Amino acid sequence: MLPGKVQPESWREALKLMGHCPLCGGNYATDSARRLGGMGVANLVHLTCAKCQGGFMAMVMVSPAGLSSVGMVTDLNYNDAVRLHDAPEIDLDEVINGYEYLKHNWY
Question: Which pTM value belongs to this model?
Answer without folding.
Answer: 0.70
